[in-house]
Design brief:
single chain; 216 residues; Rossmann fold; 2 domains; 8 helices; alpha/beta
């Protein structure tokens, strides 16, 4: 059996003009994740990221030098576009400025999107789910035994919910739990794909670094 280790990107830049860059903390989280994998003797023989800058920066800061492959199916859903569609182009200011309001509203929006709402959004829920499945197949159609993927909370939630055959709405519950640089591991073969570990952060558990743990 081979291993697919999916890591969420490090902390991005919430509230900044360009969200799609790692914060200083995000770079440190990523470096700690890479160090932990090497200390455990877990060295990947295939690397894949989405096409987002924060995903590519995470892998770079983890310290793995080989050139990664890319698959856009690993990218996050466009939550700015979904919020714009839901609020007819005028997103209330608290949704973009207050973390608690933002994530409560985001959860409500994704649940609505899954039921066919957010009309006018550039991507439907079915399209999102389909591209995540395409990315999963791309990652496991390989002779590699240890595949390292850098993705985002939404695709990780969807991959996990699918592996567990969970109800569609469970994806968002899982999504909102996914910590920055957390590790979710799947085991796969030609005939099997199942969840082995979800949302673990062993690199952020030692004394002195626990304050580095973030969810956004």
């Amino acid at each position: 059996m081979a291993e697919l280790l999916v890591i969420r990107h490090g902390q991005a830049s919430f509230g900044a003009q360009n969200y799609d860059v790692l914060s200083d903390l995000g770079h440190r989280q990523s470096a700690a994740a890479g160090d932990a994998l090497r200390a455990a003797g877990w060295v990947p023989d295939r690397l894949i990221t989405g096409t987002l800058l924060r995903q590519r920066e995470t892998l770079k800061s983890m310290g793995f030098d080989q050139a990664p492959e890319e698959h856009a199916g690993l990218n996050e859903y466009d939550f700015h576009d979904l919020l714009t569609a839901r609020f007819d182009g005028v997103v209330p200011e608290p949704v973009t400025q207050d973390r608690k309001v933002h994530f409560r509203t985001l959860r409500e929006t994704i649940l609505d999107w899954q039921l066919g709402g957010c009309k006018g959004a550039r991507e439907s829920w079915l399209d999102f789910a389909g591209r995540v499945e395409d990315a999963r197949k791309f990652a496991i159609e390989t002779d590699a035994r240890r595949v390292l993927v850098i993705s985002s909370g939404g695709p990780i939630g969807q991959l996990t919910a699918t592996a567990l055959n969970a109800p569609v709405a469970q994806m968002m519950t899982l999504n909102l739990q996914v910590k920055n640089t957390s590790m979710t591991k799947f085991i796969f073969s030609n005939s099997a794909f199942f969840l082995h570990e979800f949302n673990s952060t062993p690199h952020l558990m030692p004394e002195g670094v626990a304050d580095m743990l973030t969810y956004s």
